[in-house]
Write a structure and sequence with these properties.
The chain is of the alpha+beta class and 92 residues long. The protein has one domain. It is built from two helices and three strands. It has helices spanning 11-26, 42-54, and strands at 63-66, 72-78, 81-87. Strands 1-2-3 form a three-stranded antiparallel beta sheet. A hairpin with a 2-residue loop joins β2 (72-78) and β3 (81-87). It is elongated and about 40 Å long. It starts with 10 loop residues before the first helix and ends in a 5-residue tail after the last strand.
């Protein structure tokens, strides 16, 4: 599956998936952060998109951030507490 085949049917999900795809595009070259980072993995992107699609309708959407190892971090920020989650680039 490529980056272009991840959209859902819900507007907020489509927006979140678009954000994920934009993030993957922005981090599509190695060393995107100037510190020898890896590109965002297609596996990590697919897993993050699947997770977002599975969220209940009334659940808030996370914020997305790239990780230097090719993972995507999903963060829910509530007041002063951050609840992070990450989708790793390989299945191990």
């Amino acid at each position: 599956m490529g980056y272009n085949n991840l959209n859902g049917t819900d507007g907020r999900i489509d927006e979140a998936i678009s954000e994920l795809m934009e993030l993957a595009h922005e981090c599509s070259n190695s060393d995107w952060d100037g510190c020898n980072s890896l590109t965002i993995s297609k596996i990590a992107l697919r897993r993050a998109a699947q997770f977002v699609r599975a969220l209940p309708e009334d659940f808030p959407m996370p914020e997305f951030a790239p990780e230097p190892d090719g993972a995507i971090s999903l963060d829910w920020i509530q007041s002063k507490m951050v609840k992070p989650s990450a989708f790793l680039p390989n299945p191990n």
